[in-house]
Amino acid sequence: MPQLAQRVGRAKPSAIMVIAEKAKQLKAAGRDIISFSIGVPNFLPGEHVYAAARESLSHDSGQYGSNRGAEALLDAFLGHIEALGFTGYTRMNLSIGIGAKQVLYNLAEALLDEGDEICFAAPYWTTYRDIADIVGAKANVMHCGPEQDYKLTPTQLDAALARKPRVFLFNNPSNPTGMVYTAGEIAALADVLAKHPDTWVITDDIYNSMVFDGIGYHNFVFARPELRDRVIFVDSVSKTYGMPGWRVGLVAGPEAVAKAVTTLNSNHITSLPEVITAAAVAAFSGSQDIPRAKCAEFAGKRDLVVAALGAIPGVACPRPQGAFYAFPDISVAFGKSHHGTKINNDVEFCAALLEAKGVACVPGSAFGEPRAMRISYTCPTAQLQPGLQRIQQFFAELT
């Protein structure tokens, strides 16, 4: 039979979804499973979002929409980013996608030719490496371990940019670590970026409204406005508004980049459906009470997770200040056994934890850090403490 394209061989299933599917299968078989695996916010948007969707259906045109995005959505997004601190942007600086993941893929297609270099820090969201592989880009990964709070340093960035990569991809707040960069840390990195004018900068900041401890959200453009000509900001409704299934992603950046994304849209997705657009407009422009309340709730859950992990001898977990993840270093368990099952690495640890205690976590190697595992703490509050206690018991039983 004819052969598939070579790029398909470079595409890999999401490691996160593999774990989530295994947990789902065990639960269907009758096991008591607590899932800390998949990164979904596990809450629903406000009634005003559903009301807008229903109203849209009542006068649906059935027509194609704009490749760039409906004007109402673009205007609502402009209001959203202005509240964050981005000023001077117009509709021509914006475009849409089927979720932030598809926006990132579009940006890779628009900015990277085969063989170009893209740099990003590890731990990284799994899709970064996957997209780079699919488009044939060379990934230069800057390793940022727990000893530096999983944060990129100016020295590391300077060395990476000296190689003149086409793209620098940055994530703040971070998935998988939950770490957030302070205004000072962003300013120091922005100073380095200003020295290297040949690199595009993508800030994948979809957790920008989930920041704890008063640290605030900061962007390179705020620190060095002259970077605006090459900084591209990516956002979505998925995490902030509890709408991952609605699949709305947006990008704000230089007009040439927004135009390129829009052109790519015209060749595959065409547009967002009217009902989805209406819901997203309502999310951005309506009451923000639910996102604010959920942010406070997640901060409280963060405290429980960090306290539980801190009570385990040998486990180190830099304190996350955003999103809804913790990323503990579990390497103290490597070389030990759990009831006869030898644990040599993070993958074996997570497999044994799931089998023995019914707790699903994602191995850190999926994110480029094999000493760790990711905990997504968006499960119902009633499951959080029992899940954490099972993890503590698992460690206590290692020999």
TrEMBL record:
GO molecular function: pyridoxal phosphate binding; transaminase activity
Domain of life per record: Bacteria
Record carries keyword Ribonucleoprotein: no
InterPro entries membership: Aminotransferase_I/II_large (IPR004839), AspAT/PAT-like (IPR050596), NHTrfase_class1_PyrdxlP-BS (IPR004838), PyrdxlP-dep_Trfase (IPR015424), PyrdxlP-dep_Trfase_major (IPR015421), PyrdxlP-dep_Trfase_small (IPR015422)
Keyword terms of this UniProt record: Aminotransferase, Pyridoxal phosphate, Transferase
Pfam families named among the record's database cross-references: Aminotran_1_2
EC code: 2.6.1.-
Cofactor requirements of the protein: pyridoxal 5'-phosphate
Name of the protein described by the UniProt record: Aminotransferase
